[in-house]
User: Fold these one by one.
Assistant:
Number 1:
Amino acid sequence: RTIYFNQPLEEQTFLKNEISTGKYNFLTFLPLFLFEQFRKVFNIFFLIICILQQIPGISPTGKYTTIVPLVFILLVAAIKEIVEDYKRHRADDAVNNRKVEVFRDGTFVELAWTQVVVGDIVKVVSGKFFPADLILLSSSEPQAMCYIETANLDGETNLKIRQGIPATSEIQSSEDLLQLHGMIECESPNRHLYSFNGSIKLNEDRLLPLGPDQILLRGAMLRNTKWIFGVVVYTGHESKLMKNANRAPLKMSNVDRTTNMQIWFLMAVLIVISLASAIGSEVWKKETTQRWYLNDTGTGPKGFFMELLTFIILYNNLVPISLLVTLEVVKFIQAIFINSDLDMYFEPTDTPAMARTSNLNEELGQVKYIFSDKTGTLTENIMEFKKCSVAGIKYGEGISERPGCYFYDESFVENLQTKYVQSNYVHEFTTMMSVCHTVVPEKEGNFRYQSSSPDENAIVKAARNLGYVFCVRTPTHVVVRCQGKDESYEVLNVLEFSSTRKRMSVIVRAPDGRIILMCKGADNVIFERLSEKSQFKFETENHLRDYARDGLRTLCFAQTELNEAAYKKWNDTVYYEASTAVVDRDKKLSDAYEAIEKNLFLLGTSAIEDKLQQGVPETIATLSAADIKIWVLTGDKQETAINIAYSSQLVNNDMSLVILNDSTLEKTKQTMEEAICDIRKELTCLEEAPETSKFALIVTGSTLQHALHKELEETFLDLALSCKAVVCCRVSPIQKAMIVELVKKNCNAITLAIGDGANDVSMIQAAHVGVGISGQEGLQAANSSDYSIAQFAFLGKLLLVHGAWNYNRLTKCILFSFYKNICLYLIELWFAFYNGFSGQILFDRWTISFYNVFFTALPPFTLGLFERTCSSKVMLKHPQLYSISQSASKYNAKVFWAMFANATVHSLMLFYIPMYSMKSEIAFSSGKTGGYLFLGNFVYTFTVITVCLKAGLESGTWTILTHIAVWGSFAIWLIFFGIYSHIFSILPLGSEMLGQADNVMASPVFWLGLILVPPMVLFRDLLWKVFRRRFQKSVVERVQELEVEHIDPQKTILDGARQSLSERAHLLRNMFGMGRNEDRDRSSSLRSLQDANHGYAFSQEEGGVVSQSQLIRQYNTSNERGSSY
Amino acid sequence: VMEKEKRHIPDNTAFKQQSMPAWSPIISAKSALPVFFIISLAFVPIGVVLLVTSQSVVEHQHDYTDCVSVENPGVPCGLLRMNQSQMTQPCTCILNITLETSMEGNVYMYYGLTNFFQNHRRYVKSRDDDQLIGQHKSSAQVYSCAPYHLAVENGTLRTIAPCGAIANSLFNDTFTLSQGDIEVPFLRTGIAWPTDKSAKFNNPPPTTDLEEAFKIYAKPPNWQKPVTFLDRNNTDNNGYENEAFIVWMRPAAFPHFRKPYGRLNRLGSEYNNGLPSGQYKVTINYNFPVTSFGGRKRIILSTTTWMGGKNNFLGIAYITFGTICFFGGLVLTAVHLHARNTREFYLHKCLFVAQQNCHN
């Protein structure tokens, strides 16, 4: 595509910079909604019933008795859709209406994102998101450089550098922009995040090439750069980010799938009993043809077919018509409960939890695997200098009391100021902190620092807080203001960081003229290069281990003084040759560095905290106790990932790490098989189930590529599943999704993915349940998630409380919905035996069709909304209770058929007891008799009250609303019955029902039946409940009871666990199995497969546009910085 | 600013925080016990009362399907009615009834039919309630009655009144009960639901002149006389408002059913205390054919109680269920006592374990 910028006359029509994730708009709502609805077999079924009912003569229930409830139900569904879609539109609007400065008519005007069009020049300031994909023209920094944070796109913590082409870098003001005209040619919109090809033509100049270094993608954020100018190239849904965002796939919960299955079962039952009835009808017709009082009874094949249709219509309500809409509404309100949970409201960012879909509420109760992102999910993405060890002494063990300053140790400061022997080391350490880095300072009141490495940033900031203020960087010098006096260090060389070198060094000339090489890096790398005479090795090593155990990121600091001549020789020959080499420059440079980085003297080590979000270790422990496996999938480095695994208690020192870091398929296979073998060996000797394995698997992205290969997939899964924790590092977004898919496909377990960035989107969409971390600026993950929460810690409540509750509620609601329909509509079948299988209904047609929408509509709601086995406190305290919903033991085919059988028995009783009560037919003392509908109304009333009471019996918790639902439903029926029995006098409707209520209620048999039938029907259910509680007490029930008796359930559960080895006991044992000491003792003697217990971690951009040494040479912060006007 | 900052904070209401006061009943042996005993305590006596009440009902049923014609001795009326051509031929038969005990109070006469599917779907819907409420309707408007919606009468195609299969098959046997030569007076009114009589069945206008009102209609094909002849003596009980007709028009629930025929007129007669014991004779005008489809016909005399007719089932059901509940209660008591013992044992054990833990 060709884009002309700054040429307003040119007609350019591209997509608007507006995103819309809503499903509908005004015009498309009706057709799309109907399409969506009638895609469901369920609705089609009822539509067919509606159509069948229009055929004259076959419907036993009139023409409109299905269409009215169906329309009502679709209306409710439509209202729900509208409300949900409205919310989506509101969220879109929030993004669409973000403001950005756009260059229009010679000045910058602030416009909403939607008004940005392709070809616009926009100015983005620090900390703001790019409104569209931009071509970087110039920035406030030298040579049109800028930092961007792409955590939202790829999850990497370090900042990236983008640089505009030199031809545009001089544009610094509106005046310059006015002079600028030109054209950009670039490829058509695509989804490749890391590639871009184009060219730019400025003011009739020649074409200049543009590449990925010049592009700023929507979704990224400008950091540490005052402003940039950019030309908009892709907007709205054409931006690379949006191209990557697949529309969220329609997810279906496990319970929904089971329910669908059961609906099919019911339809099959429906067909079977319809067929049986139709055959019965044929048999009855054959019996005698002499029933003169009946006109045409419809014999022959056509008659048979018509009878069949009649019966299908008659029994159609076995499938509860209101089920889907009941579920939708229940889930919708459950989602409101999630949204309004104050425990999941995060005050600092004013973010409540948010259910973006309500389809999966109950799925939250069944999660078995959690796939978590690291950055921004487990961690806050804030690095803090927490502790250090200098010359064998630990500092910063206490808690810093100074706000905004995480490292403050009185003795450290004292040592800095006094002149002990120790103080010299401390001074040198702090100096190194403020000198040995590639950070650029920025004066903004206090000094702020910009760097692509958050670690270095933290170190420099800590040095600043200690009074060693790094204040100026010129191309050749750094100035450190130390105790009020500026000390200038000449930077001679920067020996760059790379992840293979695991260290970086600077060679500086100190103010006193000495040449010092300062080197910081991974402990093992530094220790290899220490001089024989270097002290404190032992102490430091101990401290390093301590830090590593706490999950802190460590860097060792070492330095050495270089002899002037030796340095000169190195610099002029070895280094010079390497730096000017044409081939293999990187290799040669690193060899050159190697040559001088030796004979170091150890100063100490820093410990930086990659700050975990609040409550992460506790939450992980709780979730593990609930038998949920947690896998960490991060784009970050192995070291970082391991650190976090330690600090979040996912991995502890008792566990052995299995590290997969092989570059070929064969080697990967070999390592994996060996590891499996080892684990098996350990397990057999411990006689332990894999659940309690003490292994943690660490996999890197490149190995994962092999491990996920078809061939090795299974081996990998075997290995991963036999480990307690799995950490995958350096994984690409697509690999994250692949891992999730792998587990999803093979484990038959519910997976949950949680993440915060755009790189997590694919994983979030792949998992059964996707959870996004919201509240940070990036909304990609949250927007494509099913649930968004502000903190990882809220996952505990979301799953253990809301998930378990919702599962319990929903399954009860579904089972009850099935139950009540089977109960009522099977009665029609029993009646068919007495009416010659003619399809006659026992009840009035409208009372039948309102059964679901009015008379028994409320109890499923109370079950679905207010049912609660244990309080939320108890649920969180005993994560083991989660296993009830997790194992789907309350809702499966077995439970369904048991319910079906129960409902069948109930319907038999509900039909036959009234039938025999009315045997003499004289229902009044006045000798009058009833009729079929008279009996029908008996049965119907008994059924409504029985079914409502059954709902009450199923309710473990009675709120005021439960009372309203149970007694209210019955009252609604009685009121309706009363009104409906008189309506024929006013409207041509309900002629059969005329006077029924008066006569039914005048009959003593009715009242006697009303007292007798419901208790009789529910007798078994009640007795069963009592016996079950007595002889087969579930964990929940036990906890409930003990809660009532104020006994700490923990002990009882533990005690109970020891008594038997039943399934329950097994469950209980798992709960507290961790407490068994003998295992722990033995596990400590386990051989670690590979000792990865180092705390080293460091993030910095590598191989970027501008190398670190080039970068720092370009800054001169002693001068005024460029500004845009 | 604070307000704005916290604008997303959820409402702290009991509903939204799911903290509504709730009652969580624990259905244990202990809490269910009283329920069972209370039910058994209440139901058994009720059942006894019901059974006694039901037993006090005197009921006499007599099948007269195969009774023999008086006009053609030796020929059962049922056989005669098998033949379409002999349908209008009169057939009377006599049934002798002996009342061993007197029937005190109100006595009702019922006719009972067996294997007659009044509840058949096509039969039930074959009527037009608008017509029956007194609206003049054309044959097209009463299509639900088809094929009994129009007929040729006096050379013209007319709407049938009352239309439909139910009306067409109106039960048309008549009974006369007599003791010796004295006819026992039975009223054929007061047998239909008052609501039906007042609101559901009305003659069409002009209501003062039934002949005029039904002039344009044809009689149902099986009827021998038009609807205006249902009760010539009582204008309030004629036409659609005839109670015997109304009773027939309410379809029975089962193929074995009974419908009220009449009630003993106790006022101003020697039967003011009911029917004394003795020999009675029922003279039956046998018109209604049932033998063709294997149906049976009965005549029933019954007294009633406050709970209606003879109904042993309810009493037995109450007593049975009450007894079951009683035994259920006993079992629960056993369970509860057992549970309490184990609970105590259990608590002791808990304490013991706790102490052990302390020592370790």
Number 2:
Amino acid sequence: MKNKRSLFAVPYVVWMALFVVAPIIMVVIYAFTTAAFDPTMGNFTGMGVYLSIFTRSFELAIIATLVCLLIGYPISYMMAKEGPGFQRVATVLIMLPMWVNFLLRTYAWMSILENNGLLNQFFDAIGLFDLINAIGAQLADDPSQYVPITYFRMIRTQGAVVLGMVYNYLPFMILPIYSVIVKLDRSLMEAAQDLGANSVTVFRKVILPLSLPGVLSGVTMVFVPAVSTFAISRLLGGGTHMMLGDLIEQQFLGGAYNPHLGSAIALVMMIIVVVCMWVMNRFGEGEEQAVML
Amino acid sequence: MSKELIRLVNCSMAFDGELVLDNMNLYFNDSEFLTLLGPSGCGKTTTLRIIGGFITPTSGEVLFDGVRMNDIPPHQRQVNTVFQRYALFPHLNVFENVAFGLRIGRTEEKEVNGKKKKVKVRIPQDEIRERVLEMLEVVSLKGFENRRINELSGGQQQRVAIARALVNRPKVLLLDEPLGALDLRLRKDMQSELKRIQQQMGITFIYVTHDQEEALAMSDTIVVMDQGKIQQIGTPEDIYNEPKNAFVADFIGESNILDGIMHEDYVVEFFNRKFKCLDKGFAPMEPVDVVIRPEDIDIVPPEKGQLRGVVTSVTFKGVHYDTIVDFKGFKWLIQTTDYHPVGETIGIILNPDDIHIMHKSQYSGMFGDYSSYSEEYEEMDDVTMLDEEEEGSSREGGNEE
Ligand SMILES: Nc1ncnc2c1ncn2[C@@H]1O[C@H](COP(=O)(O)OP(=O)(O)O)[C@@H](O)[C@H]1O
Ligand SMILES: [Mg+2]
């Protein structure tokens, strides 16, 4: 029996070895060698110049993750609570964008957020700019000096990058939280009600703590791709807000071709992410304990 | 002495147009152990959920102390529930599960400066601690405070669920088949323990079960239900000795139920023979159901018997023998401590107080004939064989691991 089972596992093991373990080993080898494959630490010691990119990437990823959580949790909760009708509609709405190619989606956002894009055209059409300009001219010390605005600057901002990430990764927050909440035993909520809890207390003391595992996996599934995201920052951030993903991409495909440095950066990023996740999971367990005490 | 706490008035409940409770009228007294007894699907849980406030009856009224409660949500009702499958909070330890209700502040009306105000009342920490520990002692779970729920056995989880409900000092505790998941030994222990707790705390228990033995052993009052209707309300003795119809007679204990004719007060005819009985008040020559409990029948030598029959099957049941006897094609179950082999002709004697007369009902003719008795046994044998097979296969499954 044992042999039979391990026989079935062979393709999986081969797959893992070929496409997961081998690349990681290669990344490690590249990170610690020069172009001539001589051992070196140089790839790491010189990394300080990219510090701002590191901090920006993690900052934006954290913001995007929090925004995803704030939007995603209520949606997941409602999907789990409402009838199957709402559930189906919401699932389709959430999944639909995922069937469109990632780049296409992001290009679409570009044309929406552009200075003369759809959104600004819409604001113009409803007379928002005229209104603002009228008020602005009134308030200005010298009305003749007032420069009327004709658009909001939305593209090429960090906000646009966060928006792009939230839009792309929101489903990864919603689905794990939803699947945890929907499986919660209804009788637990009834028991809480029976013991005197109103619906707010039922949520706070039963549903929220029991949905934490879903939150943790949602946060992981958003944060990890958000940190390493590329293209979004280039397209929506206008290249002025480079992120780690773009930096690494440049080392492999771009003009700054240096796969050894790229590997080193990727390795450092990976380690930081793993440490973050580990700390968070510890914290998650701690949370459970804290609730228990 | 006994004060009425809860009353259901003409309560009906329908799900998707299907009537599940049919015009229930029932009241619950202070400090009473009342059992709702009936086969699965008869509406016991639905009745409890109406009292607990989880569903609102389609028609009729729920009164607590005479006040209409139909639209009051569960968290504002002074009753607590022990759920069918415990519903303990898996993220909390034993202590916090029990403390759950105490930690929730209750709003109470209070006079403040001569005005009625709603005040949120919180119980101080040390009082919570004291009450939880006290309650854990009552349910014999002292020292288990810090255990996780999944580290407890079924019986222990059961006790936590009871403590969690009782610690709030409800006037009424609702229990939905609380012992259903426990094995026989544990069930017996818990039965007496529950009874002890109920008497010790002096509160009303509304207890749901489909196990008639359990109901007889624990209750002050039994409400027998079937198909959403109350069939009979009474003390265990009443219900057992004076069943109202064939359903109750069959559901509570074993019964031989036969067709009879009531000639006059105290005289009933069956098997073309007149018997003396203790029942009266029937119409002359009224067709009736006659109930004879298997343990009430005395076996005598054939020549001394009022009726003669042939033993067709004997099963040893520990204390007694289940003896099936054929009387002119109608098979009776007789329970005696004497052994009578298959094929033996025996006589029986029925004393007046062994014979119970019931009016005819929709259940007449459905129960009380033991012709199929031996087949029932064979079916049960099949079940045990199946069990063994399953065990065998699961053992194989274990080897795979
Ligand atoms: N929420 C519900 N929706 C539809 N039917 C229900 C619901 N709850 C109970 N029923 C039906 O009502 C009947 C009585 O159920 P229940 O009160 O749970 O019976 P019991 O507890 O006596 O076994 C059953 O036929 C059951 O299928
Ligand atoms: Mg039930």
Number 3:
Amino acid sequence: MRYDTHTKTKATQYAGDSLPASDTTVKANQQVMSGAEIFLRSLEAEGVKVVFGHPGGAVIKIYDEMARIKPNFTHVLVRHEQGGTHAAEGYAKATGKVGTVLVTSGPGATNTVTGIADAYMDSVPIVVFTGQVPTHLIGNDAFQECDTIGVTRSITKHSFLVRDVNDLARTVKEAYHIARTGRPGPVVVDLPKDVLLAEAAFHYPEHVSMRGYSFPVEGRQDKIERAARMIARSRRPLFYVGGGAVNGGASEILTEMARHAHIPVTTTLHGLGAFPEDDPLALRMLGMHGTWWANQAVQNCDLIIAVGARFDDRVTGKLDSWAPYAKVIHIEIDQSCISKNVFADCAILGDVKTVLEQLRPYVDEKDTSEWLAEIEEWRQECPLKYKKDDTLRAQYVIESLRDKTEGHACVLTDVGQHQMWTAQYFRFLHPRTHITSGGLGTMGFGMPAAMGAAFGLREMGSEMPVVCISGDGGFVMNAQEMSVAAAHKLPLKLAVINNRFLGMVRQWQELFHEERYSHTDLSDTNPDFVKLAEANHCVGLRATTPEEARAIIEEAWTINDRPVLMEFQVAKEEMVFPMVPAGAATGEMITERLTPDSFV
Amino acid sequence: MPDTLILTPQQIIRKKAAGEPVEPNEEELIHQHTITVLVENTIGALIRVVNMFSARGFNIESIAVGETEDPSVSRMNIITTGNDRIIAQILRQLTRLIDTIEVEDLTNEDFVERELCLLKVRYNAQTRAEIMDVNTIFRGQVVDITPYAMTFELTGPSSKIDAFINMMRPHEIVEVARSGHVAMKRNHVTATAGGRG
């Protein structure tokens, strides 16, 4: 067997040319400056507008130069480096640009690890600059030393340790290039203190040339034609759309193609918004907490057209019985995702948008009315529903937020039950309006990411409200960033769905661990959320009934000069349904219909 | 193309569901593969490659690294095992690393492979002749000798080294050092253009 398609060829690897005209001319024209200033000038040259950072000993020179030269970007002083990385993620996901983080060595760097891992799992382009002890002390167990490159190696797309001030500008350029292109991801640049103090001429390269780095753009023509034949032959086709479609800006062409060929679309958690969920072809989310009809469609379709998705275990459940009748077309930019979990009958490597545009002329209008009618039956059979009475429930809160914004909001969530309910009930219309921590499932993601998204939208001149939906457990984990958002007058709408429990863990304890609620009750340790908001210079509101919920949402939308925290005290017994238990086959869903007792 | 040949358990189920005949599970058999990787000649690059194997749970049977004709490039020769799906994953993950310049699976190519072995064995008057006989058969060289021990140098494919060590086992082997396996594709280099083909 030959694997020649995986072989990189030398010829394509010297496409760019970063060499300055000649060393002497460069030196004559360029000013000599400190490494710290070179760093700041490089960020300016890269077009960075916001840096989320926290100073410390190893990067003090950068902060000193920042005060002196006043670079033309905003530095946001976060109150914890983890909050900084999540803010950069929120910024990156809301805008499509690269997020930037600047922290000091040792603990500053280790505090960013969760955010970096989160960005790696969810393909978020961020560059994290970490301070480092001077090069002569590296390896010496110096004060605030940590082998940052070593610690982050398996959670970064790439990382650099800058040992020479003359490499600094080029490294910054390469870091942003790697983070942004191909399948996006986090890049770490470790900056030893002596490199920041040393002096050199500043020259920011226009191009990068890395012989080992390339990424596919156009799909192979024979594969495109083969995919088109598969689509033409298929009688029960299904688009399965992931976060790659959002990252790749493929939403428009995807929507057009699905409507043209009458192919239903189901999205992953990160794919939400890539296809408007008010379209009759939208099947909403699939997988563990996906809709009954989307999962039934997967189990019965004869063709899956996967667009920028990676067949995660939360999507497929038990692999062996997932989509048993389906052939798979996989459109993907990252070759390592091809046939990793699910075999791809036709794999098209390339930029998803470019590939879909290539494929579009070959796709004819199809008659899928029978297939759509079948799906419609499943939709009627088990709709998303919850009990509507005097008790305030999370689903009601989310629907109310949806009604208030009519779907025109940038919604960020934390991790847990509220995250799944948001995915189920919000009905997203636009790409980049649903931002969450999917792969790593990081509690504490929502609030700082919302702050970052708000900075991004403000920069782009967007008036879209930023809504963060959190649980009481996750919100507390990075609540310190509220005061930062307040200081910058960001009108965040922070909805805390407070059920006084770690709800998702409680749900598993109830369903699979005989109702032993081991250490999931938070009622003794939860703060007073209204007071917490007020202590952090925000407005705090509280609702305990459906009427109050509507009222405080109205009130929150009248406050535009600082964040508003809305605490919704909801029923703790509510569970997220439908559900495919972990490791079970997608066909074996638990639904409300089958377990009426789960209703309290 | 490999992806038209590899069958995953899931595809087998799909084939069964469609009533197609299922071939014997040859694709699940574990094979040994020889992969060569050209990487940036830095420690960081080396660690990234090795780290990828450990982080993703792939095997390394042998690994040998050395500089190439271009001092900024190292060649890594990796022997790994896995079924076709795993090997395809390994190749894709290797290619994806930013420091890797070229990744090639030589297993089904026409290639030469060599390994170097140093072996120190204790001898006495009775065993000396026999040890020397074995060495002659394998065309090894004596590179060091003391009144009680001899050190042999031997190069060849790994199977030859294995056989040599096995033949020496009845005697008292003091130490064995193996270089790991290096490999290179046989190729017709034309008279004009330079470089790798």
Number 4:
Amino acid sequence: MKISEIATLLDAKVLCCEESISHEVHSACGSDMMSDVLAYVKNQAVLLTGLVNPQVIRTAMMMDMRCIVFVRDKNPSDEMIELAKEADIVLLSSPKRMFDACGILYSGGLCPNEV
Amino acid sequence: MDNSTPLTYSFTVHGDDFSSAGEASVQVKKILRSIGFDADTIRRVSIAMYEAEINMVIHAGGGVADLYVYPDRIVIVLTDKGPGIADIGLAMSEGYSTAPDNIRSLGFGAGMGLPNIKRYSDNLDIDSKLGEGTKLTITVIPQR
Ligand SMILES: Nc1ncnc2c1ncn2[C@@H]1O[C@H](COP(=O)(O)OP(=O)(O)O)[C@@H](O)[C@H]1O
Ligand SMILES: [Mg+2]
């Protein structure tokens, strides 16, 4: 699935790195616990989270993720957006709740694991 | 590059600002990428160092992180003058954490940091003295 399709499915705004939204991704994970993401996630390209602080971006950077979806209309700070641009990570903000957003992407064809 | 003289880099980890924690790990990731290590090796080093850097900030008031790049291994040494770890075995167990609730609400403090560092590295050495500080030595061996 392209990142642009994720944005469409989740009614999400693209907050930065719009030039990378045609990038293909295959898997995602949802979590507010960054330590869990660092522990259990393997090669997932998309992180869905309700947490908003710079550590979310750094966690995604460490994991080589391509896209972060902030659920429930949460908006990252300018500092976070700058960090994401540095690593070419697309930031999306969606009005959906975590459970709904994950369900929509799951039925849309994203896997919990990288193929 | 021979085995006796590694490339070395040193970073100050500021203890007063959680939001800047991880800056040294981002730098290290860039350095390793420019040297040309493979993505998996870089990721393992980055995650291990990032967890250790976060620990330095939330448990020890900051410190120093040193990176040593040898031809056959990457070593990161993190030194702090924090309170030290009373029971290293206990601290290493998954889920054990003395982090305050406000840290948990920031996405850390699940007691997974030290176990994560062990999981992603090839060797983890912890040298800690109560009241004096903690020194973590993390070694990652690139796979070919
Ligand atoms: N640098 C450090 N200085 C002092 N105590 C530490 C340090 N690193 C870890 N600890 C102790 O070990 C525990 C477990 O660490 P960790 O597995 O990273 O979990 P967490 O950071 O989520 O609490 C911490 O809660 C803390 O009590
Ligand atoms: Mg920790």
